[in-house]
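Most newcomers find our protein records easier to grasp once they have seen one. Read left to right, the backbone structure tokens trace the chain's path through space. Nothing more is needed to start thinking about how sequence determines fold. An example says more than a description, so a record of this kind follows:
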Amino acid sequence: MNHFYSDIIQFKGNHYDFGFMQGEILKESPILTNRKKQYAKSRKRHFNINKEEAIQLFSKFIPSMLDELHGLADALNWSIEDSLTEFGGYYVDYEQSGCSILTGSKYLIRNYDSHPGYYEGRYTIYNPTDAGYAVIGPSMQITGRTDGMNEKGLVMGYNFINRIDSGNGFVCNMIGRIILETCANVGEAISLLKEIPHRTSFSYVLLDPSGETFVVEASPRKVVARKSNISTNHFELLTEENRYHMDDSVRRFNELKKQKSLDPDIYEAYRILNDKEKDVFSNKYAVSAGTIHTSAYIPSERKALFAIGGNRMPVIFDFDRYLEGQKINIKQIRGVLDFDTPFVNMDGSMS
């Protein structure tokens, strides 16, 4: 068992300044150095980005993101092309992952399952002053969000489905960021998901204070929405997009369905996903399917819960109090995983 941590990044201000601040932090962080080593080994990131196409899409869906990317570029002394390639979340391959989501009328609980060596270790709380809603949640590829909640109480999490037959478009974490910063409710988020171009196939799970959950099945070819309280790593409607091997996804789905029938409250639901004995939490880190964090959100109360590893009491964030001006004093969230490769924000990640 080894100790891991996520750094708390909180900021109030415009997107350019937010980007610049993050760039200043990255200059002192191992993240970029460790990722450069990863890319050199895998060669997956050797691709060409269409700068004009990416800028056009950002201008349409979230113009302020261009300011954040410029801020990152200026702080790091990079070109905007490099910033778009590294942080833009457009036309980028995404690491395979697991993930399970369970919701009730008042909560969304989500296990993020992947390989710790690719996990960023950043939990962000950003309140923009120029455009967009304030958002709380873990980041991925710096600008993207793996899950989160905005000031309106809209909550989003996603599940990996398939990377075969990928297309030109945004990856899941940037789509998550766009949803949370630009959509006030589930209806707006569904409309956005039907319009935005998707790089690969993912399910996006959406909940707002109205209490009704929708799972949006999205591929580069088609997007459909359905009501459900459970989502793992296979589509129920767009079955032609599924992978051949779905046994573990179906097993976790059935386990969550069985537990959901007991009508758990938020703390019971959190334990269903976070307790190692409940058959949903995963230790399969070596194959990019181990549970790294468990997030929980209560839209009506604007509360976010977060834990690294299993059998952990979550850290609880009162997002409303933050929005009212109360600074969050926590600097890091710590946890334990049964794996020996650290997150990329930790020294020695790729040694």
